[in-house]
Amino acid sequence: MFEDVTPADLVARCRSGERWQLLDVREPWELDVARVEQTTQMPIINIPLAQIPGRYTELEPSLPVAVLCHSGGRSARAAAFLAQHGFPRVSNVTGGIDAWSNDVDPAIPRY
């Protein structure tokens, strides 16, 4: 099972010292339009949703995983997959990069 987390809550958790990895499951063209900046507390791994079954081993299972897409649908599917494959702490970033732009960083373009 996975939980939902808002972009603002995820950023607050990282700022309080929690270390997360952000899995962005959007396509390369989407990353060219809008992306979240990588931080020490939150490394970002970009794996398009369709490639998750073959590449999820690139993630660090000991760190919590927050999954991001454009609005939350694809990331929910990826979060469910990771939870089913033994990742103990997985969260879906509700609202995706669109909510991130609205609630955390308005410099991120919306599309």
Write a concise keyword list for the protein shown above.
Oxidized Rhodanese, domain 1; 5-stranded parallel beta sheet; 111 residues; alpha/beta; single chain
Low-confidence stretches: none
The SSE order reads EHEHEHEHEH
| CATH topology call | Oxidized Rhodanese, domain 1
Q: Approximately how much beta-strand content do the residues carry?
A: 15-25%
**Main sheet summary:** 5 strands, parallel
CATH superfamily: Rhodanese-like domain
Structural class: alpha/beta
Total strand segments: 5
Average of per-residue pLDDT values: 96
Question: Could you estimate the helical fraction of the residues in percent?
Answer: 25-40%
From the alpha carbons, calculate the radius of gyration and give it in angstroms: 13 Å
Q: How many independent structural domains?
A: 1
Q: Look at the structure and give the CATH class.
A: Alpha Beta
With strands numbered from the N-terminus, the spatial order across the biggest sheet is 1-5-4-2-3
Shape: globular
User: How far apart are the first and last residues' alpha carbons, in Å?
Assistant: 30 Å
Could you explain the architecture of this structure?
By secondary structure, the protein is an alpha/beta fold. It contains five helices and five strands; from the N terminus they run βαβαβαβαβα. It has a five-stranded parallel β-sheet. The longest helix is centred in the last third of the chain and has 12 residues.
Short description:
By secondary structure, the chain is of the alpha/beta class. It has helices spanning 7-15, 28-33, 52-55, 73-84, 96-103, and strands at residues 3-5, 21-24, 44-46, 65-68, 90-93.
